[in-house]
Design brief:
The complex is a heterotrimer of chains A (468), B (715) and C (325).
Chain A (H helix, E strand, L loop, with lengths): L1 E2 L2 H21 L2 H11 L2 H19 L3 E2 L19 E2 H5 L1 H5 L17 E4 L5 E4 L13 H39 L3 H10 L6 H22 L14 H37 L1 H16 L2 H18 L7 H35 L3 H8 L4 H37 L11 H8 L11 H28 L8
Antiparallel strand pairs in A: 1-2, 2-3, 4-5
Chain B lengths: L1 H17 L16 E6 L14 H10 L4 E3 L8 E3 L9 E3 L5 E2 L10 E7 L49 H10 L10 H7 L3 H14 L15 E5 L2 E6 L6 H4 L10 H8 L20 E7 L3 E6 L6 E2 L6 H5 L9 E2 L4 E6 L3 H9 L5 E3 L5 H4 E3 L5 E3 L1 H5 L2 E7 L2 E7 L11 H13 L2 H8 L4 E3 L23 E4 L2 E4 L2 H10 L15 E6 L6 H13 L4 E6 L2 H10 L4 E7 L6 H4 L8 H4 L10 H11 L5 H17 L2 E14 L2 E2 L15 E2 L1 H11 L5 H26 L4
Parallel strand pairs in B: 1-13, 22-23, 22-24
Antiparallel strand pairs in B: 2-3, 4-5, 4-6, 6-8, 7-8, 9-10, 10-13, 11-12, 14-25, 15-16, 17-25, 18-24, 18-25, 19-25, 20-21, 26-27
Helix pairs in contact in B: 12-14, 19-20
Chain C lengths: L1 H29 L2 H9 L6 H11 L15 H4 L2 H6 L16 H36 L4 H14 L3 H15 L14 H32 L2 H8 L4 H22 L10 H6 L5 H11 L2 H29 L7
Helix pairs in contact in C: 1-14, 2-3, 6-7, 6-9, 7-9, 8-9, 9-11, 10-11, 11-14, 13-14
The chains are: A mainly alpha (468), B alpha+beta (715), C mainly alpha (325).
Chain lengths: 468, 715, 325
């Protein structure tokens, strides 16, 4: 039985908008040109591949449903569990279900801490107990574990290389067919980077990712690749589940604030006078409240709301989701002012341009002028600010979670992982894997986003072209 | 430029040499002194003994204020001994006619109970400006105004100090303050039930204050019938009914002496605006006085020069002799000159500073547990080799507290007296595996609870006779949790086979209400959900903020909650009253958070509370425990075992969960501490040098090639 | 000039009123006086009378915005909103919910904040500008390319990792400085080193890249080309022209930050146990101390507005083409 969270709805709305925009941009040269510019950069394209992987995972995690229970009820109807899962949970079912008792190191076969183990003869010893799942099928982990891991990794590499090669062949064949050249020729061009898009970078990134995925795939069935946390949950699973949270914060925040920022910015610049004054007043006021405090107050407000409407939020996930959405909205409120100011300044310049003046002289309505003439000409600013904001917002989530005003504590997020792992650094030996996993996943996303946004900014902002 | 850097390094080096180790967080001169170092994590809210009611405030108050009684430092079970009193007072009972009656008299016959307290003589207050007098015997600082306060920012800015003898008036004054309209005393409501005329007195005072809202409300002018000064060193407290637990209250800081001069001094206009209040600057007769109060950074206690002197106890439990705890027997206390408590909000830095030798003692947070403690094959807690090498010692004690999970008894699903709900509660009691909880989240530092009473309190029954047979079986000399199948059977009996409602077929969903947030809570909630899932229940964790949680508890809209209780005094009444019907949270705003109500239990409670410890009382207690075990309004949870570490230079350490005034017993060996600190904190410089070198090597080739370019002439 | 500044200050009043109304509404809806009382009075044995008494003492038993029972002016003045919000305008912050005088606390806690933020800003400016200049200077070489890549990598790491890493490495492993804490006087220096270094390293990525872009933009301008054509050495071009002209946006960018230095850094202060205004605010949020948070919001807004005015003034000082009107 499918369930649609509010953020899910927004995500798919966003997806639809992006697809719509792609089709729109294809038919408009002035929009196509900068994107073509972006597509020429090998680094940006590699980053795009990484981002795409994150997005696909995020989307899979946004398809929620109540799983059906095994037994029907008395009347024979299927009964659904109150639990809510996502398609991603189905794919990662093993990771989700195979929980240990407590900490275990990455790829370990034994628990991290010694425990009292009752032996068969009834005596007790204190030793590292075997894990329930990690390396459980090994008879003698001391000697078999390392060779087994190496063997599985090797198989993983082979698998990755194999799939990568198939993709390469498929690509060359398709290109050859399209460009009506022979495969050898295409292959040479690919290696020398003589195609219109740096396909070599894309294929290389894809292959590397494929190899990594294959290794993880090979290992994760039998080991906890990133170890387990305090209550024995798989860290890899948590890190992957956190992707959706990061993406939602990074994108929905912008989506929520965008209509306001654009409308206000355009209106202030176009009408000037008292409208301008009011809008300026509004954003200066909002801007001058320290953002963290505004967020803190709003999160408390939400908790009051949920507290008073307890009955409407029957599941943990729904509460967490509402809080996530609220966080996006409130982050949006604190961050729309910058864009609004930029748009206002640009509109002030644009309204004096000939064609706008002309349109005005012909009696074209104000709204129409704004939509027809002004909006398309400020779109590049909007575009740049969307991509630039993204990475900042993902990072902000972690900091907010640290002061307990971030996403719901029960939600998977990198901020919550870091926050929980902070104390683990005091352990000796150090429990580093939870921190490391959140670090790697977050770092990759933000790095890819930064690289991609650099390319987008260069392509859309002609002033900076050629400098960076 | 290189010269400047060299000089700078030299300076740092020099300053580093004289102030001991580089990373020493204290000032240079403090390091070698006879100072005790500790940390605190939460800023004390109140230091006024009449309103303070939390352990983190008692850490300071205990050293400063002296109520009439105290607990013996070494003896177990806990024993009350006199502090400023000459003896522990015995209650004297009177009947309706005011005639003396026997101690064993029936409760209904007792109309009046009198506690007569004799005080020791020649006890002086700490030096304090409130007592300062000039040559004409007039108080110097009792007519302050804005002008005189213009250069005053903290208490130490008053130049003159004075002192005077402790008298019975000071104790009486403090008891009157419980009813003061401007002071909030958390026990005022409770005491008004017992102390003769206290509630009328509160009304009298508020009327008096309304008449003269701006004047100092001098409590000496208004008489409280329940307290009477007999002479300078004797006073009496009169209760309206028998209350054997009252003498425990006499060891709590609510009953500390308060000189009227201090109240007057702090009440002067302008003092409040400068934050110079009784809540901030205590005034006592204890071994120490508060020298610096900067809860944003540190609190400093210093030896009270006027301290009346007290000798280290000369007797203790048998094992105390072996442990060397009586080496100082009979010597005058206190042993240390100063105690510095630094603010540490994060547990990691605090723990690391302890290991570096900058704190003398430390608790063990769950995350640093494995570093500090191992368990021997026999299951005994032991220090790790790393700790042993540092000569760190371990002390353990089962605390007199309970951490439990309660069901809201007014809830439709889990609450109520129906068999269905009772079976459900019992099924959950079996399913939530507290032994696993203790081992994961408390590193085994806990004892699973068999009922409301923790070990160490009268009424607790150890061994097979004391197990909760609804949840545990006795096997191999141990209480073993019943298998999960039993819980599933109970679920079926309760009408939830496999966790699904028999009639509707819907899975059962329960809610846990909690104010918790922050690191580590997620893991706990995940674990709890796992426990409930074992019997097919879907647990929803409704996390909210503290206020919202309290509101839910008050309105009774919570369903399942977690709660804890620390004993005020070592008497079972202090735990059983948490389940007494009249104390329900809903409607009565009491401490019975589960809103449990059972007439039979309530009747037994009334009987038990005024009984003397003995077999008869034990029998009543056993009956009460059986009733609540059957009804299972709580999962009894566990009693934490306190583990504390201290360095080898820290002497006379024995955990005492009732006494707070333990600082005076402590002794420090500062020389050995200084040596160890030096040894453990050698600065490691090479990585810094390496980083600088790398930077130079990266820049250098580029600079050279650039130079070459620049000087190359076009030819 | 003076009339301009006066006008700007007058303009600030409605903004501050707006800020006050917003924060008042937000926090008051969240925190009823009953909640505040319970929060302050603790867990054990709290009675309803105690709560009433607590509210009465702090004036929280009055109507929120309109007192219909009072006389004339008092209808407005004798309310919670007036008592708690309007008084802020004369910087009368009143008392926190736990009874402390807020102005006094702020004046005490300002200094530790400054002890962290001022060195961070100065050292930061110095090193970021140097790095930016070096990268711009070596543009196109491996130093520039690897520098930019390093910057992007460092930008992509959450600030929390720098703090955790710094504390672990410098404090715990190397024993160079105390892990956390604070002291007064010169003793404070050893406590400030670690937070300043961590703050510095955390900011390197974004700032260096930003300054590099700034200088490169300047280098592409016509007058620089002229200077080069004149035969000036690259070093002189860089220092005399690029650096000096690049300073204008840098300086004006810094001026807007100056007042906010007082507020301190929320995260760094609470990690390193610095008793500054940042940790004051965090503590207040966690303790839900309405009065402190509102005062800090107000203070923050005032400082922000001062920053804006200062920026405008500094523009006219460094760039004669800009006129204030």
């Amino acid at each position: 039985m499918p369930v649609i969270f509010i953020t899910d709805a927004f995500i798919f709305l966003l997806l639809a908008m992006v697809i719509g925009f792609v089709f729109y941009a294809r038919r408009h040269e002035h929009l196509r040109a900068p994107w073509r510019e972006v597509a020429k950069r090998p680094l940006a394209m590699s980053a795009a591949v990484v981002l795409l992987v994150y997005i696909v995972i995020g989307l899979l995690d946004s398809l929620h449903f109540h799983p059906a229970l095994d037994e029907p009820d008395n009347q024979g109807n299927t009964v659904y569990s109150t639990e809510i899962n996502s398609v991603l949970d189905l794919l990662l079912n093993d990771l989700r279900q195979n929980t240990e008792r407590t900490y275990s190191a990455p790829l370990a076969a034994h628990a991290f801490a010694k425990e009292i183990i009752e032996q068969e003869d009834g005596t007790q010893v204190r030793d590292y107990p075997r894990l329930l799942y990690g390396g459980a099928y090994l008879n003698n982990p001391e000697t078999e574990r390392v060779p087994d891991i190496l063997l599985r990794s090797f198989i993983g590499i082979l698998m990755g290389v194999f799939i990568g090669s198939i993709l390469l062949l498929l690509f060359v064949w398709l290109q050859a067919k399209r460009m009506q050249l022979n495969a050898r020729n295409i292959f040479q061009r690919l290696i020398k980077d003589e195609l219109d898009v740096p396909w070599y970078a894309i294929l290389l990134t894809v292959s590397v990712l494929l190899i990594i995925f294959s290794i993880i795939f090979q290992l994760s069935g039998h080991y906890h690749v990133f170890g387990t946390d305090k209550v024995g949950q798989d860290i890899l699973y948590q890190a992957v589940k956190s992707i959706r949270t990061g993406l939602v914060i990074g994108t929905l925040t912008t989506l929520v604030m965008l209509p306001f920022a654009i409308m206000m910015g355009l209106m202030a610049g176009y009408f000037r006078g008292w409208i301008d004054d009011v809008i300026q007043y509004l954003y200066t006021t909002l801007n001058s409240i320290p953002g963290v405090l505004l967020i803190a107050a709003s999160i408390l407000l939400l908790q009051v709301y949920i507290g008073k409407h307890e009955a409407e939020f029957t599941s943990l996930e729904q509460r967490a989701d509402l809080r996530l959405l609220f966080l996006c909205i409130i982050l949006g409120i604190t961050s729309w002012t910058g864009l609004c100011r930029l748009l206002r300044a640009e509109t002030l310049k644009l309204r004096e341009v000939d064609y706008v003046q002309a349109a005005k002289a012909f009696g074209v309505g104000n709204f129409k002028i704004m939509m027809r003439h002004l909006l398309p000409n400020v779109m590049h600013i909007v575009m740049i600010s969307i991509v630039l904001d993204f990475s900042g917002l993902v990072l902000a989530e972690a900091v907010l979670s640290y002061i307990n005003i971030g996403v719901d504590p029960s939600m998977h997020s990198w901020g919550n992982m870091i926050n929980g792992a902070r104390l683990e650094m005091a352990r000796d030996p150090v429990v580093w894997w939870s921190l490391a996993a959140s670090f790697i996943f977050m770092f990759l996303l933000v790095l890819a986003a930064n690289l991609f946004s650099d390319a987008v900014r260069d392509a859309f902002d002609p002033r900076l072209r050629g400098i960076d | 430029m290189p010269n400047i850097i060299a000089t700078l390094f030299f300076c740092i080096f020099i300053s580093g040499c004289d102030s001991a180790a580089w990373n020493n967080p204290y000032s240079a001169e403090e390091v070698k002194q006879n100072v005790y170092y500790d940390s605190f994590s939460e800023r004390p809210k109140h230091l006024d003994p009449v309103s303070s009611y939390s352990a983190n405030e008692y850490v300071f108050l205990g050293q400063i204020y002296e109520p009439p009684l105290q607990y013996h430092f070494l003896k177990r079970p806990y024993e009350l001994i006199p502090l400023t009193a000459t003896s522990v007072p015995d209650p004297i009972y009177y009947d309706e006619q005011g005639l003396l009656i026997e101690r064993s008299a029936r409760e209904e016959d007792i109309a009046k109970v009198v506690y007569r307290i004799n005080l020791k003589k020649n006890i002086l207050f700490q030096p304090h400006p409130a007592f300062a007098k000039d040559a004409n015997n007039q108080y110097v600082y009792h007519d302050l105004d804005e002008e005189k306060l213009s250069n005053i920012y903290q208490l130490s800015d008053f130049n003159l100090v004075g002192t005077r003898q402790l008298t019975a008036h000071d104790y009486v004054y403090q008891i009157k303050r419980m009813a003061h309209p401007k002071v909030h005393s958390p026990i005022a409501g409770l005491m008004a039930k017992y102390i003769l005329g206290l509630s009328e007195y509160a009304k009298l005072l508020s009327e008096a204050l309304e008449e003269n809202p701006h004047d100092f409300l001098d409590l000496r002018k208004y008489d409280l019938p329940g307290v009477k000064v007999i002479d300078e060193h004797i006073f009496e407290i009169t209760l309206t009914q028998k209350y054997p637990q009252f003498r425990y209250w006499l060891s709590m800081y609510f009953f500390s002496p308060m000189p009227w001069e201090a109240d007057y001094f702090y009440s002067q206009p302008g003092m409040n605006d400068k934050n110079i209040t009784l809540d901030w600057y205590p005034i006592g007769t204890g071994a120490f006085m508060l020298k610096e109060n900067n809860p944003n950074r540190r609190m400093v206690l210093e030896r009270n020069p006027n301290f009346h002197g007290e000798a280290y106890p000369t007797d203790g439990d048998a094992e105390d002799y072996a442990a060397g705890l009586l080496e100082d027997a009979g010597k005058p206390m206190p042993f240390i000159d100063k105690a510095i408590y630094s603010l540490e909000k994060e547990s990691i830095p605090a723990w690391n500073k302890f290991l570096q030798g900058y704190y003398d003692t430390s608790g063990i947070v769950s995350d640093s547990f494995d570093q500090a403690i191992t368990f021997s094959a026999a299951g005994e807690a032991e220090l790790t080799d790393e700790m042993k090498e540092k000569d760190i010692r371990l002390k353990t004690a089962v605390t007199t507290s309970s951490y439990y999970m309660g069901f809201n008894m007014v809830d439709d699903v889990v609450g109520g007296d129906s068999d269905r709900a009772r079976l459900l509660r019992r099924a959950i009691s079996i399913a939530v595996d507290y032994e696993e909880f203790i081992s994961i989240f408390a590193n085994g530092r806990g004892e699973s609870a068999q009922g409301p009473i923790p070990p160490g309190i009268f009424g607790h029954v150890p061994g097979e006779a004391g197990i909760n047979h609804y949840v545990y079986d006795w096997q191999n000399n141990k209480a073993i949790r019943k298998p999960i199948e039993i819980a599933k059977e109970l679920m079926t009996k309760a009408g939830y086979p496999n966790g699904r409602d028999e009639t509707t077929g819907k899975p059962l969903t329960l809610n846990l209400d909690t104010p918790a947030a922050g690191p580590g809570t997620k893991a706990r909630f995940d674990w709890l959900r796992k426990q409930f899932a074992k019997i097919g229940i879907n647990l929803v964790v409704r996390a909210t903020d503290y206020n919202r949680f309290q509101e839910k508890m008050r309105k009774g809209t919570a369903q399942i909650f977690q709660w804890g209780w620390n004993a005020d005094y070592p008497d079972p009444e202090n735990f059983f009253f948490l389940l007494y019907g009249i104390n329900a949270k809903v409607g009565h705003n009491g401490e019975n958070a589960a809103n449990y109500q059972n007439d039979e239990y309530d009747e037994l409670f009334n009987q038990m509370k005024s009984m003397e410890n003995g077999e008869a009382r034990q029998a009543v207690i056993n009956d009460m425990v059986e009733i609540v075990r059957r009804d299972a309004p709580w999962l009894w949870g566990f009693h934490p075992v306190g583990f504390s570490l201290h360095h080898g230079w820290y002497k006379n350490s024995k955990p005492n969960l009732m006494a707070n005034n333990t600082l005076k017993y402590k002794r420090i060996d500062p020389e050995s501490r200084y040596e160890k600190q030096q040894q453990w904190n050698q600065a490691v410089w090479w990585p810094v040098v390496v980083i600088i070198l790398i930077l130079i090597f990266v820049i250098l080739p580029a600079a050279i090639s650039y130079r070459r370019n620049e000087t190359r002439s076009i030819s | 000039m003076i009339s301009y500044i006066l006008r700007r200050i007058l303009y600030a009043v409605p903004i501050l009123i707006g800020v006050n109304v917003i924060t008042f509404m937000l926090f008051f809806v969240v925190n009823t006086p009953d909640d505040m009382a319970r929060m302050q009075l603790g867990m054990k044995r709290v009675t309803d009378e105690a709560i009433l008494k607590w509210k009465e003492e702090r004036g929280y038993n009055k109507p929120v915005v309109w007192n219909s029972e009072a006389q004339s002016f008092e209808k407005i003045t004798n309310t919670i909103f007036f008592e708690n919000s309007i008084k802020l305008f004369v910087f009368d912050f009143g008392r926190s919910d736990n009874g402390r005088d807020i102005s006094y606390d702020i004046s005490q806690r300002m200094w530790p904040s400054l002890a962290i933020t001022v060195p961070s800003l100065l050292l930061g400016l110095f090193s970021y500008i140097s790095f930016g200049l070096i990268l711009a200077f070596f543009r196109g070489t491996y130093v520039d390319v690897s520098g930019v890549i390093l910057c992007v990598i460092m930008m992509s790491i959450s600030g929390l990792f720098y703090i955790i890493g710094g504390q672990y490495l410098i404090g715990k492993t190397l024993h160079l400085v105390p892990i956390s804490g604070y002291d007064t006087g010169w003793e404070a220096i050893k406590f400030t080193i670690l937070p300043v270094v961590v703050g510095l390293v955390g900011g390197i990525g974004a700032s260096t890249r930003w300054y590099r872009t700034l200088f490169l933009e300047e280098m592409n301008k016509d007058y620089v080309r002229t200077a080069r054509a004149k035969g000036l050495s690259e070093t002189r071009v860089l220092y005399q022209h690029v650096f000096m002209n690049g300073l204008i946006p840098i300086l004006t960018g810094v001026v807007v930050l100056l007042p906010t230095l007082f507020i301190g850094s929320l995260i760094i202060e609470s990690f390193f146990a610095i008793p500054g205004l940042g940790s004051y605010t965090i503590d207040a949020i966690n303790a839900q101390d309405f009065a402190i948070v509102r005062s800090m919001v107000f203070l923050g807004s005032v400082l922000y507005i001062i920053g804006l005015i200062l920026t405008d003034i500094s523009y006219t000082l460094v760039d004669p083409r800009v006129r204030l009107n």
